[in-house]
Design a protein that fits this description.
It is built from no helices and 11 strands. The protein is mainly beta and 126 residues long. Strands 2, 4, 5, 6, 9, 10 and 11 form a 7-stranded mixed beta sheet that branches. A hairpin with a 6-residue loop joins strand 5 and strand 6.
Amino acid sequence: QLQLVESGGGLVQPGGSLRLSCAASGFTLDYYTIGWFRQAPGKEREEVSYISSSGGSTNYADSVKGRFTISRDNAKNTVYLQMNSLKPEDTAVYYCAAGPPAIYYSDYPSDGMDYWGKGTLVTVSS
């Protein structure tokens, strides 16, 4: 069974940090572009960050730039999202997704994702 599983979410105070993990089973992630997305209650899903299949290229939404870092460990078949200086507006369900390598360079990479996880909840609150 091919699936992505997110973990690492939880409750954190403003200014705190969390590291999310996206682990694959049934397939290897090293071929794929990986994206992190989030959806807050009552809002549309938004893109957070992408990493290319090689890991050599990354990009971030303006809202998280300088605070979040995406990385991948192909030996562990896992992609990470390190989130620092968290704000209440970062509260959302975070999803990871995998798509073919060329998706990274497309205008709408989220449209080409093949696999999606079920999400992990991040709550930033005092």
